Amino acid sequence: EDKVVQSPLSLVVHEGDTVTLNCSYEVTNFRSLLWYKQEKKAPTFLFMLTSSGIEKKSGRLSSILDKKELFSILNITATQTGDSAIYLCAVEVLTNFGNEKLTFGTGTRLTIIP
Amino acid sequence: DVKVTQSSRYLVKRTGEKVFLECVQDMDHENMFWYRQDPGLGLRLIYFSYDVKMKEKGDIPEGYSVSREKKERFSLILESASTNQTSMYLCASSLPYRRDPLRYNSPLHFGNGTRLTVT
Q1: Which of B4, B40, B90 sits opposite A9 (nearest CB)?
Q2: Region for A58 from its dihedrals, namely left if φ exceeds 0, alpha if ψ lies in -120 to 50, beta otherwise
Q3: Is the CB of A90 less than 8 angstroms away from the CB of B111?
Q4: CA of B80, closest CA in chain A: separation in Å?
Q5: Using one digit for the tens of pLDDT, what is the confidence trace for B57-88?
């Protein structure tokens, strides 16, 4: 069974701090790893990672994948209150029928205190 | 922009009722998915479909069925609702990898969710 594990489950930090969110996985037929941010409604896409060691960056957010050790991290520097959200990690895998599906982790609830 | 529309934002049903959750996407996506989201458990895949009339079980299909009669519409059916099916239900759609191998856009586009309460 495919498994995606995120840690910590929740995190409370002060505005301006840097945070690192973790995602490890055990899946068959790996295609890619994705990060999403979820506030009140639908998750919004942040990054897709397919290759080890290549950092993806968007403003204060960055992410990297290690396919040998089967994990990814999401870094947020100089956090702001608007970063408060649930951060979801998902792994895209190929099914036995040759189609794709995403398996999600439990998410990390990040709270930024002003 | 891809639009995935779920028919209801909030729904309250009684135990034993048959419940239909509808999802429509407007981008000609082959793949459609139903997830449920519960605190501390993340998003769990119930069923998915990769073409009209095709379906695959996800990780927690028990108590649910699905229908995909048209490409744009994917329905989730609770045959006899129970209180443990109270949850947030999220529908999503995507292009298959063969049509979007570089995945410049998000591989998964979500609806806004239906919060179902079964009493």
Answers
A1: B40
A2: beta
A3: no
A4: 26
A5: 999 999 999 999 999 999 999 999 999 999 99
